Amino acid sequence: MKTIFSHILFTITCIGMIACQNKETNAMSCTNNQSTSKNQTLIVYYSYTNNTEEIVTDLKNLIDADIIEIEPADKNLNYEANNYRIGTEQLNKIKNNPNDENSYPAIDPIEIDLSKYNTIIIATPLWWSQMASNMQTFLFEYGKEMAGKNIGLIVSSHSSGISGVEADAKRLIPEGNFFSQSLWINNSRHSQRKELLKQWLEDVDYASLQTETVSTMYITVNNHNMIVDLENNSSTKALVALLQESAITYEAHDYGDFEKVGEFGYTLPQNNEQITTEPGDLILYQGNQICIYYGVNSWNFTRLGKIRDTDSNKLKNMLGNGNIQVTLSLEQPNAINNLYVPHSTNTGTYNITGQQLKQAPTQGIYIENGIKKYKK
Ligand SMILES: Cc1cc2nc3c(=O)[nH]c(=O)nc-3n(C[C@H](O)[C@H](O)[C@H](O)COP(=O)(O)O)c2cc1C
After folding, report:
1. Both 111 and 130 in a single domain?
2. For a FRET experiment, which of 99, 122, 125, 171 has its CA 20 to 30 Å from that of 162?
3. 275 and 318 fall within a common domain
4. Does residue 44 fall inside a structural domain?
5. More confident of the two residues 20 and 194
6. Which domain holds residue 352?
7. For a pocket test of ligand 1, which of 44, 46, 48 has the largest count of ligand atoms closer than 8 A to its C-beta?
8. Residue 80: CB within 6 Å of ligand 1?
9. Closest to 204 (Cα-Cα) out of 158, 271, 152, 265
10. Domain check: are 184 and 72 in the same one?
11. Full strand arrangement of the beta sheet holding 356-357
């Protein structure tokens, strides 16, 4: 079996988010810097003769990122010997059977949680107009997990053009959201790498990739997870900044037979307007209380968002009577342990977040007539 390895050189944490650890004052200051991003970048590189490593060293001075280096399991291979014979053999093996993991050379083990990165930059040498085989091994393992992420590609070659490496990247990361252009640094431009990197980051508008707005969060009550589509205002931006630090749990009680309300321990900026609520509305009241509406009320307050696919009955079933613990979070809580099992009188088919389905899914976990089921 293949072995894989890496070492993480360093991690830089978003300083703007640390400012949100304390309560009221800092929640407000996060509003000012519009810190709603889940803006972690990972740089993954492989380098045999250190050109790519030099490029990555300069890149890490320009952006905040975690870095992983890919290392071949066999440290004694001379890829350049005999007219690059080993590299040629490895690449031919991949070319002949790209879907077989045994085609890819062994690399040292990597423990990496890709879920925290929205952007991944791959830096690799070009070998025989293809992506160096050791980097291909890593992407064969992890490329499918990169679906939907922003993917940047930097290629170092002696002189050959990089279209073959781009094709390899797209094959191995089939659902990556690739930057508008890759960065090719050939031997004659290697000494200008700092300027080339700066220009590339500008050309692909790297800064705007890093301010992706968070548009959903989760509410968990009585082990039921609900998805909230967030409003885009300074109140939600400050709330998201707090939730990027950690989930928030607070106690809520019934009020007026139309809401569960509770102080959640922070004060957010208000964007009050006259609102007539609907079931599922998530409302900020006086800046420091969050209300989950299952009924109708008219007042001057701030809309934070709307719980997806719900109605008054479903919400009342989920929220129950009396005081409850409400947890707000950005990541989906462990859905399998927190299955929403509809009220026993509810018939029908539901997914694990409690959304009603027209029919059972062909795969995965679902709930039918109150019974949890699983299809392979
Ligand atoms: C096995 C192998 C094959 C290579 N094939 C090519 C090639 O086809 N065209 C090219 O311009 N450079 C080729 N190179 C040179 C590398 O792409 C170039 O030196 C690159 O800068 C190496 O990056 P590194 O120092 O990070 O390993 C090859 C290098 C090796 C080891």
Report:
1. yes
2. 99
3. yes
4. yes
5. 194
6. 339-376
7. 48
8. yes
9. 152
10. yes
11. 356-357, 349-350, 364-368, 371-375
Q: Which residues contact 201 (CB under 8 A, 6 or more apart)?
A: 62, 63, 207
- Give the tokens for residue 318: 């989920």
Q: Does the beta carbon of 35 lie inside 6 Å of ligand 1?
A: no
What residues form DSSP beta bridges with 42?
66, 120
Chain segment 268-299, per-residue pLDDT in tens:
999 999 999 999 999 999 999 999 999 999 99
Q: What angle do the packed helices 24-32 and 234-245 form, to 10 degrees?
A: 120
Residue bearing tokens 């350049």: 80
Mark whether 91 and 151 lie in a shared domain: yes
Looking at the structure, tell me whether residues 97 and 226 fall in a common domain.
no
Q: How far apart are CA 261 and CA 317, in angstroms?
A: 16
Distance CA 197, CA 292 (A): 47
Question: Please, which residues have CB within 8 angstroms of residue 8's CB and are 6 or more apart in sequence?
Answer: 66, 67, 68
Q: With a 6 A CB cut-off, is 258 part of the ligand 1 pocket?
A: no
Residue at a domain's end among 194, 209, 224: 209
297 alpha-carbon distance from chain centroid: 36
* Ligand 1 pocket check for 164: Cβ under 6 Å: no
* CA dist., res. 85 & res. 329, Å (int): 52
